[in-house]
Amino acid sequence: MAIGDIIVGIDIGTSKVSTFVGEVNNFNQIEIICSTSSKCSGIQKGKIVDEDDLSSAISRTISEVEDISNLQVNSAYTTIPGKYITIVQNSIVKDAKDKFAGISIKDVASAIIQVRDIEIPEDKVLIDIVPDKFILEDGKAVDDPVGKFSSHFTLTAQIILAEKDYIKQLTSIFKKAGIEIDGVVPISLAERNLVLDNNELNDNVMVLDIGAGNTEIGVFNGSTFVYTNTIFLRRR
After folding, report:
1. How many CB atoms are located within 10 Å of the residue 123 CB?
2. Do the bridges between strand 6-12 and strand 75-80 make them parallel or antiparallel, or are there none, so unpaired?
């Protein structure tokens, strides 16, 4: 993200669709410019049961934020319930191209490409890579290895997979609303950075989001995203 970038996020819940528009500030944080929501009954127990209703709700929120912000919205990030997510832990060892010049941005980018090289089941699709730890040759773990002098480093990461059919359905719905999907983010992973402070980000934490029809669960072992799922509310 660069300063001044506009980021749009759409959260699809059981009872409503919420859309947020933010701008990246000088501290590389996203400041909310505007937000809106629209009632929607297109999802029941985590399943999309009415694509047209959901698409219409997305379109309404997009029109509203465009009027408020005076911006044209063509694409957005969106959330996905933990029910449809599989987390695969992976790690690779990467040699620095020039150990005397320090680990470069290209070295890190290459490592992230390599760590995603896993066998993906036919019914899954890769939606995100979450770099976890960079461990230098002396065993020291760092958040950012760029510029560190080390002949090699180990990258551990979480490979986020989603059910292919759900992603196809979601893509179709957004297309009907005239919106492209920039990325799909697990709900609990998105909320982690919102509800935890800098100290808590390194703790072992479970994040619970109790919604109108279901509860989202996210479990984090320090910086490691280890588990997510969805519990559905039983209605009598």
Report:
1. 10
2. parallel
pTM of structure? 0.90
Contact 95, 150 (CB under 8 A): no
Q: Could you give the CA distance from residue 172 to residue 54 in angstroms, rounded to a whole number?
A: 11
Whose structure tokens read 């996203």?
30
Structure tokens, 214 = 């279901």
Structure tokens at 219: 């479990």
Structural domain boundaries in the chain = 83-163
Pick the closest to residue 208 from 230, 224, 225, 193 (CA basis). 230
Residues 151, 99: Cα–Cα separation, whole Å: 5
pLDDT in tens, 21-48: 999 988 888 899 999 999 998 888 778 9
CATH 3.30.1490.110, applies to 83-163: yes
